[in-house]
Amino acid sequence: MKTLSLIVPSYNSADYLHRCLDTLIPPDQDHDVEVIVVDDGSTDSTAAIAQRFVDRRPDRFRLISQPNGGHGEAINTGLSHATGQFFKVVDSDDWVEERAYARLLSELRKITTQDRDVDMVVSNYVYEKAGRRRRASIRYGNVIPPGKDIGWDQVGRFRPSQYLLMHALTYRTELLRRVQLRLPQHMFYVDNLFAYIPLAHVRKLRYVDVDFYRYFIGRPDQSVNEKVMISRLDQQLRINRLMIQHLGETRRAQLLPKPLDRYMVHYLGIITAVSSTMALRGGSREMLQMKQHLWSDLRRVEPTLYLRLRRSIVGRLVNLPGHFGRSVSLVAYKTARWAYGFN
């Protein structure tokens, strides 16, 4: 069995896939890493580019072509074919840093050879924004002690702007299969579910303090581009509601140690704030009603969660009343966008 499966969901990625795959060639000669490119119904030369890597390094690269099913279905396919003990997703427009790659691989190999029961490994990611010199590295040393196998009871409080994106996470493959992770088809923003649903089943985690993942943002057609997010607000809200449902069910099943419960409420609050802010940015009566319905549904279905989120700083900020309140909310959002460099 291999140590690591890297899954690259790819749809019409010809302009940047080569850069991504070049960085995924392991920095040593061991054969315990596989890179699975899932061509999700591309109509450009994505499959041909991936096939060149397979032809050159058949011991490292695999290509799976399927009808278009969306980002989530591509990850589902990768999971069903993965042979590595650990599983990580690398989006086709992103890349990884070579020295950090070597360090992360070394840590994963130690975990597997020493038969340690680590379910999730956390590493840093870096915002690589087009046209911006300053790169924001998202690190976790303030909440997760580096270089230790720990439980959730040793995880501290995340800052208001800090959370575990998919790009920071490497899961044990068996964990994902045991929880029967299945992401929705033909839907954007499923990476939030990938970074959320498995957490209640993670017993031990390890933080490797390296800037491994390079998260490229700035393309106008990117799913996290503000204009694109506003146009897909309905999908953002569907993911948001699935997260609310999952957390409610998990809390009722009493699966969450207190620090993890605190974090999952925190992450849900961030996603709910994003949904609310995109509705405010859209500004139409329909979008403002969609925002109102989201909070009303949360209050009706999960009243305890509603109170915690509504009373938080972010919850108060995105629900300021009237036209002036919405203006204040948007000023705060623009300030955060400038400070952190997201789209």
Structure commentary:
The protein is α/β, with parallel strands linked by helices. It folds into 2 domains: 2-217, Spore Coat Polysaccharide Biosynthesis Protein SpsA, Chain A, CATH 3.90.550.10; 226-340. The protein is 45% helix and 18% strand. It has 13 helices and 10 strands. It has helices spanning 17-24, 46-56, 71-81, 98-113, 173-178, 191-194, 226-231, 233-252, 258-282, 285-301, 303-310, 313-317, 322-340, and strands at residues 2-10, 33-40, 61-66, 84-89, 95-96, 120-129, 136-138, 149-150, 169-172, 205-217. Strands 1, 2, 3, 4, 5, 6, 7, 8, 9 and 10 form a 10-stranded mixed β-sheet that branches. Strand 2 (33-40), helix 2 (46-56) and strand 3 form a beta-alpha-beta unit. The protein starts with a strand and ends with a helix.
Main attributes?
343 residues, alpha/beta, Spore Coat Polysaccharide Biosynthesis Protein SpsA, Chain A, 10-stranded mixed sheet, 13 helices, globular
